[in-house]
Amino acid sequence: MSELEQLRKSILQFRDQRNWQQFHNPKDLALSLSLEASELLELFQWKTSEEAVEKNLDKMKEELADVLIYAILFANETDLDLVKIINNKLQKNNEKYPIGKFAGKNTKYNEI
What we know:
Layout: H1 3-17, H2 26-42, H3 49-77, H4 82-96, H5 99-102
Helix pairs in contact: 2-3
């Protein structure tokens, strides 16, 4: 069993022990995922990136963990294979952003 699968099972066990699956529909999980990502983003408000990381790294770890937990729960509820969809997205991005055109550039594909 992969580490990702072990992690998914641990998350589901935590959820199931609390009888929370009833609240975990795709819409509410997507909402929670967005809210947790916003909490991570809020740690950067009014600071440079360096200041934020230096001051809030422990909180960032917790918020990032919340984001990932909700992402794993969303994938579980929608029967998505995270490894497969991430590999597919990386392949699309590889085609969309070829190294020769985009290495070292922060422009979007429609700006070139």
